[in-house]
Amino acid sequence: MAADADDSSADVGIIFAIEHEAGFLTIEHAHAHALPKPWGIVDLRPWSKIRQEDHPIGEIWYERADANASNSSLLLKLLFTNQPLSIQVHPGDAYARSIGLPRGKSEAWYILRAAPESKIALGLKGPLTSQQLREAIDTGSILDLVRWQSVSPGDSIFVPAGTIHSIGAGLVIAEIQQRNDATFRLFDFGRQRELHRERAIAVAAAGPVGIAVSPSQLTEQRTLLTANEHFVFEKIDLPPNTAWNLEAERETWFLIVDGTARIGSLDVTIGDVMFMQADRADIQSGSIGLVGLVAYTGGDLAPQLLERREQRDLINAGPQGIPVAGFPQAKAIATNESLDIIK
Ligand SMILES: [Zn+2]
Prior knowledge:
Order of helices and strands: EEEEEEEHEEHHEEEEEHEEEEEEEEEHEE
Strand content: 35-45%
Radius of gyration: 22 Å
Distance between the termini: 65 Å
Number of domains: 3
Structural class: mainly beta
Bound molecules: zinc ion
């Protein structure tokens, strides 16, 4: 069985647990692992400063800061492509369990950057029998049978288990997936890695897929990208210098994709990821606002995910200097005990 994972990951993150009480209430600055891939890129900015000229990085995986923490059921990644990924398919829960894996793998993508003409492949142009699919894998004609489509920054795509898919060159993608690395390859663009013909045939829905995803606006700040039984994927967009509570009852991953913020006592910017569970984070957006992607388990929407904090709470809550409306010349130092205004 294949796994696109390997052990050659390089640590590029800093472990920073803001608050971690008895493994229950949890907010962590996630740990980033960079994975070299034959189809990766060298310059990862602004997502990461890591640079290894002879080892292109294809993926950054975000992990719980505490290596002994219980495994999450979702995995958040960034993908960087300089060549297409293999044409591949992932198993659903039932097949995955039949081969000893804890769960299947459905995934969703959010396009962060796309060179002109960048494409992804999703499903086939027409239905194939198992025998036709076998021949298409053996001869490589599967390359002409998948349905390629153009993508642009801001597009979101849901890829349910069983969907034959690929990601073309020139893309930076945020991916949320069920945590399972079972990937069955059907075609590898001449890279000589192993193919997994029979397992791919066993799990593939060998035909066109109708999985149009159109984002829907939940509130002024929340946009639903996609929701399914395994996870919910949202984009949040906070105006400059505003204060919010992010309520994470479930396992929740939060990737900053633009702007800056202070979350708890930590300053975060593009490429930072927070992991949260059964906890609430105070977010103070920076001077250009904050755009983030939030993924959480459960399938149904979390109605209280994001709530604006009252100005009174803002003044009383912050451990650091926070701009106070109405005092443009003043610097405020707020603590839980008192508020001092320094002219
Ligand atoms: Zn995949």
